[in-house]
Amino acid sequence: RHQEGPRRVKRAWVIPPISVSENHKRIPHLLVQIKSDKQQPGGVIYSIKGPGVDEEPLGIFSIDKFTGKVFLNAMLDREENDRFRLKAFALDLGGTTLEDPTDLEIIVVDQNDNRPLFRQDVFTGHVVEGAVPGTCVMTVDATDADDPDTDNAALRYSILEQGAGGMFSINATTGEICTASAGLDRESVGVYNLTVQAADMSGDGLTTTATAVIYLQDINDNPPEFTKEEFSMEVEEQAAGVDVGKVFVHDKDLAGSPNWLAKFTILEGDPEGAFSIRTDPHTNDGVISVAKPLDHEVRDRFELTVSVQNEQPLEPSAPPSPRALATVRVRVRDVNEAPTFRENPRRVTVLEGAPPGTSVTTYTASDPDTRQLQTISYALLYDPAEWLQMNPHTGTVRTRRELLHPSAFLQGGWYIALVLARDDGEQPPCPFALSFPPCRVPLTPHRAPPAEPPLSATGTLSIEILEVNDHAPLLQPPAGVVCGRPGRGGSLLLGATDEDRPPHGAPFHFQLSPQHPQLARNWSITRFNVTHAVLAVLVELPEGPYSLPLLLRDSGTPPQEQQQLLNISVCPCGREGVCEDGVLAAATAGAGITLGALMIILGSIILFLGGPSQPHTPDPIPFPQDAYDINQLRHPELLLPRAKAPTRRDAPLSPASPPASRTLPSSPSDIEDFINEVGTPALSAPSPTAPAGLTVPPVSPQGLEAADGDPSVPPYDTALIYDYEGSGSVGSALSSIVSSLTDEDQDYDYLSEWGPRFQRLADLYG
């Protein structure tokens, strides 16, 4: 078998592409006739298949099955289908294929049946004003549905309309719009509306139009200008922070932009900086306000020179122009102003004890309204102690009564008062006798009515009450007990008080009276601290009462000194340097305490309050000088024969008169009456044994009455108040504690029976 080579297709069965114009209106239209070489008369059947026949779109093409003629049955649209590819078949009557299927391609020929279309109806672009020619702004573009390979889709662009000036041009091929000439000015024309056209067939075919809107962007090529050269306004004096008025400007640049925003400056006429100016961001006007309170009496008119310029600098291309200037005239309107105290507070000093009527100061206010005829009146608005009085016309302040220390109205030695000053603005009529507030004065032809209501001001008057050294120190206490033996126990701690405040008080100076130099042989006084001194026995003295004249002096300027009597009871000394006869000493000396006893008491207190609990050998309690034995009051006859009343510091040194005879109380219930009638018995040194020849005369037995009537001394310098403790006490009498001065003779077991407050002592000594 020989291999069969490729079969040759008959030329008549090969069909070249067939072209047909779109929109062909003669239907049906013969396109082509196909034939088979094996054609037999009435023996070949032709058919076609493909899009437009048996596929979508259906029914466009058909074939005569006997003749092979292919027909167009509908109008074609190249923009929908630009070609159709079909298959042609040749069969015999029995359906057997006579020829292999052949391709039948139908090409749709384009016609210019579509106008160009712009991609959008309105194109928008921006360009700065003053742009140089050739500055491109935007590009417009269009499309054409026709065959791009033909002139049917060859587009050309043009500007149909743009207004006067011909400021823009368009590239006919690309559609790019650029500036064509100089002179774009936003302030003249801010927006350009261009009508652009696109045409196919290279500009000779179908056309369409669109709009191109070009906005000019603003540059700062126009400086702001005042609407007029002068402005006038007015403001009330003393008004700070208020707006006075506006200066108006105009700027051609875009409103609201930095090129439009104005900046104002006050160049002249306000050296004190009384005014300020700011820009209203909404209107771009200048707002002038008061920065500092104005005073009509100082200056009632201002003439300000104000300039304006933009926040942004002008473009170099802008034409040069001078800075805009305007004159602003401000009138300051006069109003009634409150009086003012130029010195507030006013600080003055007054000596303590200044008599009533003493001039303190003249505290006056000034009226800022110098151009108004007004009178200022004064009154005390606050005077808590009512110490002061004030002249309502002159403002002179005087004392109403004596100013003394101490006082609840003083604060650190200062007295605070408030003064009210008020002008005589319009007031309703008031009685003639009322001096404050000022009454309305009837109007006269020469007196204009006040324009404003009255105003007032308050001034603070601070008065320092200077301390005067008008009190000498007082001996405290004026009595004491010492042991008659030099050394331990033979000393007494003396103290003093002074009613004056520093620096007129301590340090105090204690000394024996210089009028009695013989006292220095038996006694000495040494300084203990700034307020106390120590009295010591120099030689052994017999027991009994003594009255020592002492001279006490303070450290004030000038210093005050006073001679006072110290009542001393000299007691017999025990082994520990304390008095043996504690009962007698306590009754005689009153509240005195020896220096040694003071040290022992302080130590005992520390031990009692905070000392550790540990075994301790009990010691006698050595403070008999502070105990009072009520038995002495029950049996005053034991004391009266040998006692004399101590000399009062204010009593003259005169011969004593014998004490009046008194009936002694018959029972303890009569003791109070006895004390009130006679006074507490006190002791004086008997003349035969008085040291250094000092004799102390007694005073009147009416001691209690004398003490109550003496306002300059404490009551205990003459009389001591006692009370009867009654019978049946749970604890023993306190005097029993000092009945023995040695550990061997003292029994402390009873301390545990005195209750919880004495339990600590019971643990230590019981």
From TrEMBL:
- Please describe what this protein does: Cadherins are calcium-dependent cell adhesion proteins. They preferentially interact with themselves in a homophilic manner in connecting cells; cadherins may thus contribute to the sorting of heterogeneous cell types. M-cadherin is part of the myogenic program and may provide a trigger for terminal muscle differentiation.
GO cellular-component term (any): cytoplasm
Compartment(s) where it occurs, according to its Swiss-Prot or TrEMBL record: Cell membrane; Cytoplasm
* A biological process from GO: cell morphogenesis
The record, for SMART domains, names: CA
Return the protein name.
Cadherin-15
Region (Disordered) residue spans: 641-712
Q: Which organism is this protein's natural source?
A: Centropus bengalensis
Q: Topology in the membrane?
A: Single-pass type I membrane protein
Q: Which Gene3D superfamilies match?
A: Cadherins, TCF3-CBD (Catenin binding domain)
The UniProt entry, under CDD domains, shows: Cadherin_repeat (cd11304)
> Which ranges are annotated Low complexity under compositional bias?
659-669, 679-694
SUPFAM superfamilies found in the cross-reference section = Cadherin-like
UniProt lists the gene as Cdh15
Sorted alphabetically, the keyword list is: Calcium, Cell adhesion, Cell membrane, Cleavage on pair of basic residues, Cytoplasm, Glycoprotein, Membrane, Metal-binding, Repeat, Signal, Transmembrane, Transmembrane helix
Molecular function GO labels:
beta-catenin binding; cadherin binding; calcium ion binding
Cadherin domain: which residues? 12-118, 119-226, 236-341, 342-475, 494-584
